[in-house]
Amino acid sequence: MNNRIVFLSASRLQSVTMKKTLLFFFLLCSARAWAQPEIKPYGALPSPAQVKWQQLEYYMFIHFGPNTFTDKEWGHGDEDPKVFNPTELDARQWARTAKLAGMKAIIITAKHHDGFCLWPSEYSKHTVRESAWKNGKGDVLAELSAACKEYGLLFGVYLSPWDRNHPDYGTPAYNQVFANQLREVHTKYGHVFEQWFDGANGEGPNGKKQVYDWDLFHNTVRKYHPEVIFFSDAGPGCRWIGNENGFAGTTNWSTLNGKQFAPGMPGINKPLNEGQEDGTDWIPGEADVSIRPGWFYSPGTDDKVKTLPWLLDIYYGSVGRNANLLLNVPVDRRGRIHKNDSLRLMELRKTLDADFKTNLAVRARTSAVNTRKNSMLTSAVYLTDGNYNTYWATGEGQLTGTINLSFEKPVTFNRFQIQEFIPLGQRVKGFTVSVLEGKKYREIARETTIGYKRILRLPNTTTRSVRIEILDAKASPVISEVKLFRAPELLADPVIKRDKQGMVTITAASQDPAIHYTTDGSEPTTASPQYKGAPFAFAQSGTLKARSFIDGGKKAGATVAVTFDRAPATWKAVTPDADKAVDGDPSTSWIGKAGSFPQELVVDMGASQAVNGFTYTPRTKGGIIYNYAFYVSADGQQWGEPVAKGSFANILNNPVKQTIKLSKSTQGRYFKLVAISAAEEKETRAGAAEIGVF
Ligand code: FUL
Ligand code: CA
């Protein structure tokens, strides 16, 4: 209790200071106050380590390994370890970048599905020791853990249980191998704050089956790092958010019935995305997403780094929805973070700092309805004292309440932030925000959960009074902080669209920007052609780039790049009802009839042409193809051997456009995509949002 008194002295406004002085006085004098029972914790509760973890909010993921050099998302484990050979690896540059980006930690893929270990593990023959890098004397984990220490960042490790290289995988012996590897990683590199267990397994029905000994894995790690946060689909430290695009549900409980879930279980995306209101365990969400389309570096995605508005959407969709954000920044073939990624991270930092620069709520007089009586520990003044550990609460059992912020002069805000005091549990089920306009309050937001932190982006609103109503809660609400900010306006991204005929339109939501574009892959400047609203023709394959400029070219937004296949102007699907897979519009799709695999899609391109490769854009849900074969034919009758065959790695969790280059250019008028298997276990259909060739 004593530590709470300390915070009463600092304040900004006289009325608040007076109130606090009074409280301070009461607290010292009133025996009743000391006798007042503490607020009873409710439901599943976080451990102290989980509370600390939640306050990290934002940290870096690094995918790095043989895939970086072979341009793969899922290596097969049969790659020559010599391919791993970064030319100028600099882990301090990674740590410096993370630090400057305002991140609090780095988690690295110590071992991905290919089994390759970024440290010289004694329990594998597929490691940095067998690589060409530093003549086999290097150790990425040693360099990164030292760099994290130097820059004051926490260090975390990702180890994939699924191992496509280890000869023991699929036998009981493997469990001990994996435990030994965990022991190495947790004893040789100092403190580890988070242990990331990937649930993915792409072995398929006829693949190797490994029954994991989770107790063994957990106990091995806990022996050395008892406070470690275990990430997996099911926790127990924190949980996957159910997608790889960085968004938590607008409703997001940190509670979950942990026992109902296991890593890699199908069909659990929704409960993981939203948590479970009455969950018996505290397993908060962590949103993982890559700054590029794939998790590993590829030179092909240097111009596909997510734009600033996109990353802001992700930030507000994760940290702003009671989840931590684990943003992947893949290290490149030199062993450095590419400048396109680091520049974007700095833009994001700058924008977030500007968004949250001045908390306008500290200027308000705060009052509340249903405040807990006779309690010196809870008061409306604690809502704006900048201290998470002090709070306002309603009376025991009182599940609604109202907070009022009133201002002497009107304020304009567009960000609303509210936090629950989670050491006592997550309680709030619904709340609204209203503003006084004239004599009436107008509701501007109606939402469900709060949790550790909820941030709402709102239109600019000017008012002298903000009212927050807690509509319902599982136990009396305990609110730590309420904040208001006015974020500067942002230049929106141009949106590039092309129709089936190859006509391009570019739109932007910002006010009157001048949009300039290029069609040859170069960076748009004010000297590039300006888009004036009339569609233009671009039917060939290639990359279009567009950028918004304002203030006569002085201020510019981010460059948006879209790589198009050949426009399908003359194409017709031979497969019945499949035209939506070749209409040039990824928002429409084809889904085949239920049946058994293989299934196929045949397309007539209208005339013979050279095919150098194809792209497959999956539907976001249903019919996602995993193993495929691709054929080209002159007459649509004779198909011969497939010109490409393989699998779309990680497509289920990260359903982005797949680009497959053929080993040699092939001439033909027809092509055929054969779906050999589906990405989802019980799927009986094949589908596509779009298929293209280039
Ligand atoms: C997934 C993996 O299959 C991806 O390759 C990536 O590592 C992502 C973070 O997790 O399950
Ligand atoms: Ca507070």
TrEMBL record:
Domain of life the protein comes from: Bacteria
Matching PROSITE patterns: FA58C_3 (PS50022)
InterPro entries assigned to the protein according to its UniProt record, in alphabetical order: FA58C, Galactose-bd-like_sf, GH, GH29D-like_dom, Glyco_hydro_29, Glyco_hydro_29_N
Molecular function as annotated in GO: alpha-L-fucosidase activity
Top EC group: hydrolase
EC code(s) of this entry: 3.2.1.51
Cleaved signal peptide residues: 1-35
Stretches assigned to the F5/8 type C domain: 542-694
Keyword annotations from UniProtKB, A to Z: Glycosidase, Hydrolase, Signal
GO cellular component: lysosome
Hydrolase keyword on record: yes
GO biological process, one term: glycoside catabolic process
This protein's record includes keyword Iron-sulfur: no
Protein family according to the UniProt entry: Belongs to the glycosyl hydrolase 29 family.
Name of the protein described by the UniProt record: alpha-L-fucosidase
Organism: Chitinophaga lutea
